[in-house]
UniProtKB/TrEMBL annotation:
Residues 69-96 are annotated as: Disordered. It comes from Paraburkholderia phenazinium. It comes from the Bacteria. This is DUF2239 family protein. Residues 69-79 have a biased composition (Low complexity). InterPro entries: DUF2239 (IPR018715).
Amino acid sequence: MTLQPTTCTAFEGLRRIASGARAEVALAVKQVIERGEQAPVLVFDDLTSQPVEFDLRGSDADVLARLAGEPSGSTASAEEAAESADQDAPRGRGRPRLGVVAREVTLLPRHWDWLNSQSGGASVVLRKLVEAARLAGDDKDRMRLAQEATYRFMTALAGNLPDYEEATRALFAADRARFQASMAQWPVDVREYAERLAAGAFGEG
């Protein structure tokens, strides 16, 4: 899996002050803090809602230079790296390597009978079944991660807002209509960001 470039969003109290690349948000936060605003400033990672902290010492150039030294948010998985290496490796004679690994599978006779009766044979059907199960698991993981990210943000910023507990229950019940209704009285910036984070919890995004 390849991660998306890291972006974040900053709030001054319940007001959103910046959203986008880390460098852009860091400078906006620096400006707010230097202005002497009293409301707390919190920055959230747009994917996980984990808090983001910036070293804002020195000039804008100093801040940007430090950020430029951070690791990139885009990385390749070990699986992708191995696949790439396999593609680049020289090929010998004979059948090309397809990345297929042969292992023993133990099934009951009726399972083998059903598999062998399917189009493409047992191996093709098994691969399709595994892939379908994997994708279903990915959907559940995306839903869980979206719920966790939204809850983390709501706990940090919306815990004292009206119907917070009802919104939380609706989030984990995957009830989008009730979730939105519970946030109706929230400041628009908080409500919109919570809805953005929660999209995956309702099978969107």
